[in-house]
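Hey, can you fold this?
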Amino acid sequence: MIKSARKYIEDFKQIKRPFWAFQIEPTSRCRLRCIMCPRTCFSKEWKSRDMSISSYMKISRHFQKVRHIHLQGWGEPLLHPKLFEMVKIAKSSGCKVSITTSGQTFNSDNLERLVAERVDIITISIAGASQETHESIRTGSDLDAIFKNVKWLGNYKKKIRSEIPRIHFSYLMTKTNLGELPEFLGIAKGIGVQEVAATNLDYTPALLQDELKIFFDKKISTLQRYIKKIEKTAAGLKLPLRIYPLVMEEEVVCELDPLHILFIASDGKVSPCVYLKLPIDGMIPRIFCGSVIKVPQLSFGDINSQDLIEIWDKREYREFRENYVRRTEALSEAYKDIDLNLFGTMGKMKKAEREMQKALKVFPLPSFCRTCYKAYGI
């Protein structure tokens, strides 16, 4: 039998650190003008602001309930004047801490500080193996400087014998830079990068940017063969590589899992994820499967006036999560008898898949999520 949503809530409360992550936006400010970023598209409406340290302290009251603090939103976290203090507070609560950055503010001083404060993962966003290609997408970014500073960081870690922070690269795959990905992997390996994720352009605010994505390309089979060669290149380099899928398939719960992760914007508003809370007024424009869509901003409360867990426990927030609870329980129910070591498993798998497809129709995605590529594994 599928458990009730109430049972899920009770189970959640019994876990020592039930939240997998809080994604916290230190700032919505950034110095770059990346062509696919909503900050560039909505520059006149964009609200550039820093989260106050007092707001952050209100969130930190609940850090003992969370495993991972990810300091990143729609801005450059290293621009926040109190970022290192934020890291220290999270680490003192026993949380792992990561940041995603453009790398444009790197220098030996702040890199040493990130090591000293025991940041667990630093992910740097990249869009090419050459300066020309990278800068054509991430306008205002100096790729050579990023590579130089990352190499310095790797050498500094060796010098002081520190395993952290792990250095990751996030490579945004587009039609204009996919051909440079193999070369990029070689560069990344050579400067001490420990993992690469090749990501899709999963949110585009306007049709012009939407043309850059690769996962609806007419030559998808050719692209997939090319991706296989890239994976072999990474394997030969012994460089861990995750390439995001190029074919849409509805997820039971997306990787930004609203059952275990939440997003707090720089203004203190609490939302299921970063894609449902932009620092602009009004509806959020998005392109989905070639159509122009507008979805409402979605937040369930403000940590400046309400306790975070009280917000999480609000009826409206519970109702948003309920279908995801049902979907995960349906998954467990459908596949409960599957044993890959037994004969006849293929028949059981097909039956489980049919049951799961029925369940996804009975418990559909929330309306806010149906036009988001993250809900389809992209």
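Oh, and this one too while you're at it.
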Amino acid sequence: MDTTALTLARLQFGFTLTYHFWFVALTLGLSVIIAWQQARHVRAGDPDDLVMARFWGRLFLVNYAVGIATGLVNEFQFGMNWAEYSRYVGSVFGPPLAFEALTAFFVGSVAIGVWAYGGDKLSPAAHLAMIVLVALAANYSAFWILAANAFMQHPAGHAVAGGRVELTDLAAVILNPYLFHQYTHTILAAFAVAGHFVAAVSAWYLLRRRHVRLFRRAYVQGLWCLLAATALVTVSGHFYGRHLAAVQPMKLAAAEAHWETAAPAPFVVAAGIDRQNRRNTWQLALPAGLSLMARHSLAAPVAGINDLQAEYAGRYGPGDYIPAVPVLFWSFRFMVGCSLLLLVLAAAGLRHARRGPAEDRPALLRAVLWTLPLPYLSVAAGWTIAEMGRQPWAVYGLLLTADSLSRVVPAASVRASLLAYAIVYTAVVLAAAHSARRILRDGPGGG
């Protein structure tokens, strides 16, 4: 195995997937916000709702286009850098992607074209139906993509025969309990991104005293979305973690730097992690905190990394089954820290908006604007935990990442394609930023 090619291939896939999902996360939530605003217009006839739906729709289209373009790249990588993965699990991994393309992608692509260009040719109700279809298709698309990923995290509905994994039960893949937790957590995180995006763009206009009446209301709407989604994503994350304790205990233990099995197990707030010697050199911990979080008990045992390593070595053969503990540990704390900060910020923004005009609080508006990267970085941290926490497995318990790499693609080719992606993606994001800047400059109604 070419370890350099493996490292570069993992880096390339992580880079392209994170970049892709940043755009997807916004479109998942923003499509629903636009549909809600347009529904308000159809129901109550308020022209401001239609003006804002069209404004957010222009920004949505930019992100949607980039999300589609970058998503296609990831599928090509399965046949190039990860050919052995595709050969071994393609019969299970492929159907969810096919369903996504043949249903959600097809319906969403047609509906968004009709919605974008048919506003003056359709009745208000028919035009609303198109954006509702777009929102449903986007979130339905995420379901199938995450169904494929959930199989990698917790395989279901399969059998190993003839040196490969074969699909035996599609219903088991769809009803995978891991998928329920992952989908709920992901969609709520997407709504947090969209809510903060709406609030931040509105803050930008309010700081410049432009279209104040329109964006004063949009600012409050975005903050409510951010507050509700962040609160719910925190709750869903708790139950997601409890599920990990049952199906991926190593991921949970690594994210908590929990080296030794303990009853009760402490929650480590901060620590100096010695990955090589498999211990913490120091730690600040809350007694029984991890037992309470993972088992809802102050005395329940939680398996530690060292015992799990010994168990996996006995079950799967010699090897290092411990993921990158420092990365997971600090990614989790960064994600939680971002959620707490965003909760406080959204609550403060709503509180002050009730007391007086939002534009009279420029410091708070700047805080909302300049913290816009936080939900995006939090989403990236969440995917880091999900994907790196599964290592060294590509498909948990079935296929190692090292055995998933194509046997014929040299490191030089992966390095060249990684460089090409970096250049092209930089050009794409600059073009998207330029388009978004023009939309912001023109404002609602083009002025």
